[in-house]
């Protein structure tokens, strides 16, 4: 059996694409890893593991060790669980094995004497619920689930102590009225804690850097410009500059030395190498000058550059801090989705309400949701009525009415009613969890354009180092002098910015996919996002895509000669003529219990008008014709024209209107009462709200729009006219839909196929971009590249516009990132020195200015990507 598992884990500490390459290389050293891909912007590593060769969690633990050795961290959580039911060490071993098989667990140890299990698992993969469940399946139990402690040393620090035990699902649950504080402590997000600690670490380094660099720069510049008098040229001032620069060089800059060492050990070169080399050259030369002056030699001159190395390091730290804060905002959409997840649920067990952690809700549990609370899990309403705000999923602000039998999603907000819900999906199976997983995978995927950037980045740092060497040699031969040549070398090393190139594509993709998720548009991966902007044709399935997919009463034509029959509601809803709900009630009463789609549509129309139906005394289904029934002592016939003719019914002058309705491709039912035609009831699959608007928007964008359907040509033409489509292919079999997609592609179109059913899945897979309606089948959504949660066609032009905006943003970022390096590295090398028209600061670019430019280049890329959040769709 070929069993493959895919894990996506956070990685802390990467600063550029060189770091990402080191993480990928280190991960692949672990046996059974078939593929390792790092998304630098989202700081995530995606692993594909062959579980046949080696247990997946064992591979994950080895990957974590390799990544740590490379100089980076995969944050984990530790969990302490008291165990009940062990009788010997074999029990402890069985529990260790059971826990070790839970996804994400990298370490499990059970102490038989202390009856305690210690577990360490990767943040975002494992959780307490599955671990407790694994213990119980092994035949044991736990009465406590101490809050996990985040582990990501040295970024986060030592683990915290376990909280006091609280009851879990296996022991007595805590009654809702007695549990206000019990479940307040929930699992911390170790990744968030690690990133917060990393930002705090950068902030402390920045404060120390500013504290020492500011006086250092003031003294150095003041002396150079003669602001402080002759006393500032004393030998002791150089020693003061040395004392101020050294803490910056070896405390603030220590991370760059460590990063450079580990990068070179991994046979790669990253940004840390450039910063460490550039600042060390300036610091070491200044130290040599200071030593020479101390022994009375002026061989190296009398000027030191301690302020250059210190300010460079401080500016780089400032840039990294700003970059980290800005990058945190690129994942705001996914964080908002995660923040919607409920921590606890109120379940009804043995007639009593209990508050339990949401992880311990079981399928089939009765969950009680009070007004104003979030629904904790997916389920079906079994009692109560309310309106539910589903904007979390659909982006629509209007609440949706829910009553018995209606489905609800976890994380949606209950309105003013009390609901009893039977849990049907829990944990990672809920709609919200699947959306979060899909968005994370899409944000972590690499766009095709990123491959070119990765190839350039692999050679970038070595090329810069080589260029710095060439710069030194050229300027020495040109007679510029050792110091001038050295300053240009430092400027070249410091100004190069591989980070901007590494962030250009993934930050835009993260923001673009996150924005799409916020309005109900889910891109399967970055490839789908990139391909969507290239579309030239959109093929639409009819039923369930353009239309509601459910027949509804569209017209009711009443004969002028038909008298009123019984009680009538004056507030009848369209399309029922005012004063004639009596006829609709009669027809629906005859059809109640019918399984025919037309009969069901008539019954739904009566229910929508609030009509109470009567029970038919007799009912007869007339195959190929309709039905006959006795309702309240009246003989009722409902069916086609052949039925009316067979029963010799007086048609009451309704034939012309019948022919008009038939021409509109509507299924028209004759209603006869006591031998006379009383009304015509037209039933059709109605067009969804917004379908016509969506088609108009697509055509305005210059796309070719066509409709594919298995329905008859007349019905298809009627729907197409209503929404403004002029290219219709009807009466197709599922396989023929695939042929139509291929035919359009053969004509040179880049085709999107939109559908919702199982029969659409092959065409969705064949299309350049397959788009599934969220209300459709799982098969269709699995085959699709884009899923529209709302099921609203207006999301299609929105998806295309978002894709175009995202790719435009990526091109802007790449232009800036490559343009910055292509333009400024030669300037730092001194290419403008021979030209008198160039400003002096560009003829001899000072390393401090080079550092400032580098520090803010990557920040500008992230900030530009964040503009997508304000893009109006």
TrEMBL record:
Subcellular location: Cell membrane
Cellular compartments per GO CC: plasma membrane
Stretches that traverse the bilayer: 203-222, 228-252, 273-296, 302-322, 456-478, 484-505, 817-838, 844-866
Organism: Caldilineaceae bacterium SB0661_bin_32
Location of the HMA domain: 5-75, 77-143
Catalytic activity: Cu(+)(in) + ATP + H2O = Cu(+)(out) + ADP + phosphate + H(+)
GO terms, molecular function: ATP binding; ATP hydrolysis activity; copper ion binding; P-type divalent copper transporter activity; P-type monovalent copper transporter activity
Domain of life: Bacteria
Top-level EC class: translocase
Gene Ontology terms describing biological process: copper ion homeostasis
Protein name in UniProt: P-type Cu(+) transporter
Matching Gene3D superfamilies: 3.30.70.100, Calcium-transporting ATPase, cytoplasmic domain N, Calcium-transporting ATPase, cytoplasmic transduction domain A, HAD superfamily/HAD-like
Membrane topology listed for this record: Multi-pass membrane protein
């Amino acid at each position: 059996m070929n069993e493959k598992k895919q894990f996506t884990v956070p990685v802390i500490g990467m600063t550029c694409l060189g770091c990402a390459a080191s993480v990928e290389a280190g991960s692949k050293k672990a046996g059974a890893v078939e593929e390792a891909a790092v998304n630098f912007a989202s700081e995530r590593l995606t692993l594909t593991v062959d579980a046949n060769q080696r247990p997946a969690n064992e591979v994950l633990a080895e990957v974590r060790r390799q990544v740590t050795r490379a100089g980076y961290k995969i944050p984990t959580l530790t969990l302490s669980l008291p165990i009940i039911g062990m009788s010997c060490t074999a029990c402890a071993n069985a529990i260790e094995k059971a826990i070790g098989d839970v996804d994400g667990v990298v370490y499990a140890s059970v102490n038989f004497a202390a009856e305690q299990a210690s577990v360490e698992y990767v943040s975002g993969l494992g959780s307490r619920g599955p671990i407790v469940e694994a213990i119980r399946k092994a035949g044991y139990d736990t009465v406590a689930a101490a809050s996990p402690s985040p582990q990501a040393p040295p970024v986060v620090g030592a683990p915290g102590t376990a909280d006091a035990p609280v009851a879990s699902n296996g022991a007595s649950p805590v009654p809702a009225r007695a549990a206000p504080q019990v479940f307040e402590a929930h699992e911390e997000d170790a990744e968030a804690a690690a990133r917060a600690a990393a930002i705090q670490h950068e902030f402390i380094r920045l404060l120390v850097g500013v504290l020492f660099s500011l006086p250092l720069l003031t003294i150095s510049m003041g002396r150079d410009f003669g602001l402080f008098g002759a006393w500032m040229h004393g030998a002791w001032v150089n020693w003061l500059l040395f004392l101020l620069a050294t803490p910056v060089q070896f405390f603030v800059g220590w991370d760059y030395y460590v990063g450079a060492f580990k990068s070179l050990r991994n046979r790669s070169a990253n940004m840390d190498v450039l910063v460490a080399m550039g600042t060390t050259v300036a610091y070491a030369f200044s130290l040599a000058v200071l030593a020479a002056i101390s022994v009375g030699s002026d061989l190296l001159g009398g000027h030191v550059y301690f302020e250059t190395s210190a300010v460079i390091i401080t500016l780089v730290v400032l840039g990294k801090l700003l970059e980290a804060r800005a990058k945190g905002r690129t994942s705001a959409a996914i964080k908002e989705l995660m923040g919607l997840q409920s921590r606890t649920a109120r379940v009804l067990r043995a007639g009593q309400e209990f508050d339990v952690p949401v992880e311990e809700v079981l399928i089939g549990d009765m969950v009680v949701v009070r007004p104003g609370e979030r629904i904790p899990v997916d389920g079906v309403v079994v009692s109560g009525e309310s309106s539910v705000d589903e904007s979390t999923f659909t982006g629509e602000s209007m609440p949706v009415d829910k009553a018995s039998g209606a489905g609800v999603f976890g994380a949606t907000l209950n309105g003013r009613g009390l609901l009893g819900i039977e849990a049907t999906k829990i944990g990672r199976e809920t709609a919200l969890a699947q959306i979060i997983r899909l968005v994370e995978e899409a944000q972590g995927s690499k766009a095709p354009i990123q491959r070119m950037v990765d190839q350039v980045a692999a050679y970038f740092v070595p090329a810069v180092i080589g260029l710095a060497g060439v710069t030194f040699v050229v300027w020495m031969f040109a007679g510029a002098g050792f110091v001038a040549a050295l300053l240009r070398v430092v400027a070249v090393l410091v100004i190069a910015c591989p980070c901007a190139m590494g962030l250009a594509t993934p930050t835009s993709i993260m923001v673009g996919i996150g924005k799409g998720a916020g309005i109900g548009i889910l891109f399967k991966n970055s490839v789908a996002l990139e391909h969507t902007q290239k579309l030239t044709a959109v093929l639409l399935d009819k039923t369930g895509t353009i239309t509601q997919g459910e027949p509804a009463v569209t017209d009711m034509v009443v004969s002028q000669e038909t008298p009123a029959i019984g009680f009538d509601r004056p507030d009848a809803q369209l399309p029922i003529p005012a004063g004639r709900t009596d006829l609709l009630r009669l027809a629906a009463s005859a059809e109640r219990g019918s399984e025919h789609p037309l009969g069901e549509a008539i019954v739904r129309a009566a229910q929508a008008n609030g009509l109470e139906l009567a029970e038919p005394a007799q009912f007869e289904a007339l195959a190929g014709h309709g039905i006959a029934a006795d309702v309240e002592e009246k003989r009722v016939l409902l069916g086609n024209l052949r039925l009316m003719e067979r029963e010799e019914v007086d048609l009451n002058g309704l034939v012309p209107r019948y022919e008009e309705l038939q021409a509109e491709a509507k299924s028209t039912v004759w209603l006869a009462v006591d031998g006379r035609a009383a009304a015509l009831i037209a039933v059709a699959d109605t067009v969804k709200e917004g379908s016509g608007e969506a088609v108009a928007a697509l055509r305005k964008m210059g796309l070719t729009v066509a409709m594919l359907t298995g329905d008859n040509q007349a019905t298809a033409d009627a729907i197409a006219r209503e929404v403004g489509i002029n290219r219709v292919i009807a009466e197709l079999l599922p396989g023929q839909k695939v042929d139509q997609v291929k035919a359009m592609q053969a004509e040179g179109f880049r085709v999107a196929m939109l559908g919702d059913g199982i029969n659409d899945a092959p065409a969705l897979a064949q299309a350049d971009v397959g788009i599934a309606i969220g209300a459709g089948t799982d098969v269709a959504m699995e085959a699709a590249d884009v899923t529209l949660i709302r099921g609203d066609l207006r999301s299609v032009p929105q998806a295309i516009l978002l894709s175009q905006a995202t790719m435009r943003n990526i091109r802007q970022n790449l232009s800036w990132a490559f343009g910055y390096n292509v333009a400024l590295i030669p300037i730092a090398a001194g290419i403008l020195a021979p030209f008198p028209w160039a400003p002096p600061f560009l003829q001899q670019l000072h390393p401090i200015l080079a550092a400032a430019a580098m520090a803010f280049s990557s920040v500008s890329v992230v900030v530009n990507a964040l503009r997508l959040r304000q893009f109006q769709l």
